[in-house]
């Protein structure tokens, strides 16, 4: 009994020593702890990833009436996620580029784009982060066939460019699977498709011959356009 008690006492003392060592270590090394917790939220260049929520995603989408746009703008103001530019108007956000960036690398040369909408967008197969976010016509997301050899994976960003549409390029995030698609096809939201169509409308239906690039994560990251960073759950 005595031995056991002594043993327990020793173990107890060791535990207290260990605890105080741990406490000391963490109190003198707060930086390393912070670095660990925020590592997941650094962008591809190692800079802190900043999130914004534009609420209405691609505001060029013509689904919304002026009053709907106004109520969405009001919602956005109450959410107050625009930390750096409170008065940034939606039209100042550039949601396409002319040509790819120098850091974009060619992934596929002849990609077909199509579009899908409404309830087909809901509950994407890559997940919606378990939150209340659902993709909308005004999101910049896409779906690809399940077994596309070397194709984009769940959550990855691709930049699609159409040389026949003034070389416009749009960054989209792949978050869904497309049963009726083939390889080298990306099924897009209406807003992303329209930016890449020569007519600026949906009338083409399907457009061949786009270039697809691997692209860096956007920073700032618009949750309305791309959804939550972690999709599973
Ligand atoms: C999304 O697009 C579809 C097809 O054009 C349309 O019927 C639907 O009303 C749109 N959804 C919203 C919320 O505007």
TrEMBL record:
Keywords: Signal. It comes from the Eukaryota. Gene3D superfamilies: RlpA-like domain (2.40.40.10). Residues 1-25 form the signal peptide. PANTHER family: PTHR31836, RLPA-LIKE PROTEIN DOUBLE-PSI BETA-BARREL DOMAIN-CONTAINING PROTEIN (PTHR31836:SF22). This is RlpA-like protein double-psi beta-barrel domain-containing protein. It comes from Kalmanozyma brasiliensis (strain GHG001). The lineage of its organism: Eukaryota, Fungi, Dikarya, Basidiomycota, Ustilaginomycotina.
């Amino acid at each position: 009994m005595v031995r056991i008690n002594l043993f327990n006492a020793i173990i107890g003392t060791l535990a207290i020593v260990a605890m105080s060592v741990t406490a000391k270590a963490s109190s003198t090394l707060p930086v390393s702890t912070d670095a660990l917790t925020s590592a997941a939220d650094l962008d591809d260049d190692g800079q802190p990833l900043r999130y914004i929520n534009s609420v209405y995603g691609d505001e060029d989408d013509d689904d919304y009436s002026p009053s709907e746009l106004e109520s969405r703008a009001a919602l956005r103001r109450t959410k107050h996620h625009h930390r750096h530019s409170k008065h940034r108007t939606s039209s100042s956000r550039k949601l396409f580029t002319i040509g790819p960036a120098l850091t974009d690398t060619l992934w596929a040369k002849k990609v077909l784009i199509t579009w899908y909408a409404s309830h087909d967008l809901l509950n994407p197969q890559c997940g919606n982060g378990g939150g209340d976010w659902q993709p909308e016509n005004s999101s910049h997301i896409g779906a690809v066939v399940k077994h596309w050899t070397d194709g984009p994976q769940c959550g990855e960003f691709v930049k699609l460019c159409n040389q026949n549409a003034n070389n416009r390029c749009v960054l989209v995030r792949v978050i869904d699977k497309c049963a009726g698609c083939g390889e080298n096809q990306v099924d897009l939201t209406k807003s992303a498709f329209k930016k890449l169509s020569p007519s600026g409308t949906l009338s083409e239906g399907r457009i061949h011959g786009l270039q697809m690039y691997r692209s860096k994560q956007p920073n700032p990251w618009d949750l309305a356009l791309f959804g939550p960073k972690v999709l599973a759950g």
